Amino acid sequence: MTLKKLLLTLAIFTFLSTILTISIFEKVQAAGEFLTSCQVDYAMTNNGMTQVTNKIELTNLTSKYFSSEYSLSLGDVVITDFSATDASGHLEAEQSYKDQNTTISVKFNDQLVGKDKIRKFSLSYKTSDLTEKLGKIWEVNIPKVGSSAGIGDYKIRILVPIPFGKMLYISPKPQNITENSFENSWIPRNIYSFSKESVIQNGISASFGEAQFLRFDLGFNLKNDDLAPSAKEVAMPSDNAYQKIYISKIEPEPSTVQIDTDGNWVASYKLRSRQNVTVKISGYAQILPMALIPQPKLTDSNKGYYLSEQKFWESQDLQMISESSRLKTPQAIYDFITNRLALDEGSVSEAERKGGKAAYDSSKAVGSQDFTDLFITLCRAGNIPARETEGVIVSTKGNYSHTWAQFWDDNLGWVQVDPSLGKSIGEVDYFSKTDFKHLSLVTRGVSSELPKIPDEVKVEFADNLPANKGKLQISFDLPKYPISIFTTNAKIILENLGNTGLYDKKINVGVQGAQLLSDDSITIEIIPPFSRIEVPVTLKPLNFLLAKNIEIEAKVDNQQFLAQFKTKSGWILLLGVFILSCAFCFSIYQLFLVTRKIRWPKRNG
């Protein structure tokens, strides 16, 4: 029998940007001649060093070939203490580095010939590139297996030390979890096991720790070039499903803080003629990888905003409509974009914005903004509400401006996805979740261009959050000259003097001495920090003519707030009207008499 030397290559691509990425696939030069089974253990230590052990079985499916050499390609990673062994003992292994790729080559000591013969060996190494600590979070991401062809049994285990903290997120769901295991370790570890079926379609993403905290300092340069006074607005970071915001300082103090249709907290300033103002906003953010903060429902009246065509979202283009009708779902649109477009890494923030249709037609690499625009365009063309988020990606290697997308799901609310980062990192799934590095600064849906991000942005990891000082102050704006015969209006004023948004504040209104014509129960979904909301109260006094004391009661959070005012007697007004009427009639009569004397003077004789 002629023996042909076969080189089997099992490649592990490690993409190291801001998240660890490991991708494993098999390339067999004599396809179909071998079956590979593998168990890979990623055993991590407290400092992030990982011992990677590959236990591999190569089964001959034919008697024509045998394996004599094995190569493991790791990408641009630094490894130490690499070794390979089989039943006979130590195997010769060499490490090489070329074109930003580390390769371990293993030579087998014997020739294993014959159908169904199985070669068992292990290859291990250490590296600190397989985990990344970001602030208070440890992150591990293992992408999907590229292809299941030629792969028999395939298992992955992640052995995470207890000091990493609690598991905040892991996807897909592990096949099995073993807690507080001392397997081959003096340190207790939790072991997460995954089968081949769970890692073929989607990679493994996991985060460990307590929570992620960020501190931000923002600057806005406002300028009024007009001769007349002008109002200017700035959008500050706001709560959404993936982040909780704490505003520490706004200087100077805005005239108002309101919520726009997109949910941005918008601070307004009144600038004099030719006035320049620098607005400084500082605060903290708690970042979540999944939609965990309750969101307001998207009303039917507002859905139109997120389906309409905009300058960079050409959702009425016939080609976009046709493509979207073929794809049908946000997941299919995400997969289509990450497969179709090439990402220009150097133009993530600097590239000239092309818009969704131009990105679709482009034969060249495009920037992250174009990935987002195309996703929104195709979603809207397919009648799926979608919008854009612009913010910052925070990492230990520096921060950079970035955009990603959100689409509306009736069950989940606004779901954010990042197709360009999914393309950049490689096989990591950025559709099912994002990560702890995305800080949203503005959300755009009504317009593809507004609001603008700050002129100055500084973001860094923080150890803690400030105390939650959400403080609601209740006051009343009472009528100045209420009269008992007329309906009168008052206001209940709610002011958030704290540093974070207040949610679902229910106000129960009661009245004594008058009939309440407005609603007796009002729920306010959100009150942003430093904002003021006025609730109108319409009253009809019970006594039509007499002066009456009227009491307004407002109950909020089991606290009672009271205000009183007294109406003016209706008799006074009626008497005044009667006197004026009499005076008017008397004046008319006198005028008549004077006119009569002029026209018909009395004749003598």
Query: What is the count of distinct domains?
Result: 4
Strand order of the largest sheet: 2-1-5-8-7-6-9-4-3-12-15-14
CATH H-level superfamily of the largest domain: tricorn interacting facor f3 domain
Share of helix among residues? 10-25%
The counted number of beta strands is: 35
CATH architecture of the largest domain: Sandwich
What is the residue-mean pLDDT, rounded to a whole number? 86
**Uncertain ranges:** 1-31
Structural class computed from helices and strand pairing:
mainly beta
First CA to last CA: what distance?
A: 162 Å
CA-based gyration radius:
35 Å
Give me the CATH fold name of the largest domain: Immunoglobulin-like
The total count of helices amounts to 8
Which word captures the global form?
Answer: elongated
User: What's the main sheet like?
Assistant: 12 strands, mixed
User: What portion of the residues fall into strands of 2 or more residues?
Assistant: over 45%
* CATH class label of the largest domain: Mainly Beta
Description of the molecule:
The chain is 14% helix and 45% strand. It is mainly beta and 605 residues long. The chain has 4 domains: 4-209, Immunoglobulin-like (Sandwich); 310-448, C8orf32 fold (Roll), CATH 3.10.620.30; 472-566, Immunoglobulins (Immunoglobulin-like, Sandwich); 571-605. Strands 2-1-5-8-7-6-9-4-3-12-15-14 form a 12-stranded mixed β-sheet. Helix 3 packs across helix 6 and helix 4 crosses helix 7. The longest helix has 30 residues, at 570-599. The radius of gyration is 35 Å and the shape is elongated.
